[in-house]
């Protein structure tokens, strides 16, 4: 529950930059009662990883408007917290979404005052690349140990690939999860892609 409140405060901080204060108070409430959050309370790692996303976007916007190293470092620290939360799928989805935001956002809104569109785009990509690299470097001592343990577990269990593959989803299943209307029931929350 604490990480839900941390995430809600990040949503408030982010929304405060774009909308008036009374309305920015509604966004954290919507976040706290969102279907995604409630569906993932059983998976604590997802909540831990989700809590840092709004703060990363806030640091991104701060860097775009005021390009100082502290925003890059903060973004890297926040991304490392997300990496270490234990939800690699959610981190992957976040990176994919954030990559598209970094590419498209500078062309979809007017640049901040005194900034050309090229500078806006350059800062956007620089923030994405720098925070991703910093986050991986900061979290690497823990990730290297985890990869080593994972390798040992894999060697000891000798799980054949033919037993793993039936549990994976085909590309059409991922597309169906995003657009809906399949009539299929997915196994669990980890095999379902969420937009939100």
Question: Tags for this entry?
Answer:
mainly alpha, globular, 0% strand, 196 residues, disordered C terminus
Structural features, described:
This protein is mainly α and 196 residues long. The chain has helices at 2-16, 21-24, 26-32, 35-39, 44-50, 53-65, 69-84, 88-108, 117-157, 161-164, 171-179. The two termini are 19 Å apart.
Give me the secondary-structure topology:
Elements: H1 2-16, H2 21-24, H3 26-32, H4 35-39, H5 44-50, H6 53-65, H7 69-84, H8 88-108, H9 117-157, H10 161-164, H11 171-179
Number of strands: 0
Judged by helices, strands and strand pairing, the structural class is mainly alpha
Rg measurement, Å: 19 Å
Strand/helix succession: HHHHHHHHHHH
Strand content: under 5%
Could you give the distance between the termini? Answer: 19 Å
Mean pLDDT: 77
Provide a concise account of the structure shown:
The protein has 196 residues and is an all-alpha fold. The protein is built from 11 helices and no strands.
């Amino acid at each position: 529950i604490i990480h839900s409140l941390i995430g809600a405060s990040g949503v408030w901080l982010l929304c405060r930059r774009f909308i008036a204060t009374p309305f920015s108070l509604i966004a954290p409430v919507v976040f706290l009662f969102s279907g995604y959050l409630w569906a993932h309370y059983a998976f604590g790692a997802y909540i831990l990883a989700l809590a840092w996303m709004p703060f990363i976007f806030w640091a991104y916007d701060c860097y775009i408007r005021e390009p100082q190293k502290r925003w890059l470092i903060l973004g890297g620290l926040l991304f490392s917290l997300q990496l270490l939360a234990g939800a690699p799928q959610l981190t992957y989805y976040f990176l994919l979404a954030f990559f598209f935001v970094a590419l498209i956002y500078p062309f979809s809104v007017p640049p901040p005052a005194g900034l050309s569109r090229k500078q806006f785009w350059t800062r956007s990509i620089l923030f994405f690349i720098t925070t991703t690299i910093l986050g991986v470097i900061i979290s690497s001592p823990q990730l290297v140990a985890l990869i080593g343990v994972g390798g040992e577990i894999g060697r000891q269990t000798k799980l054949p690939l033919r037993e793993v593959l039936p549990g994976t989803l085909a590309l059409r299943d991922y597309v169906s999860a995003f657009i809906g209307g399949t009539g299929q029931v997915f196994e669990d929350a980890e095999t379902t892609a969420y937009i939100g």
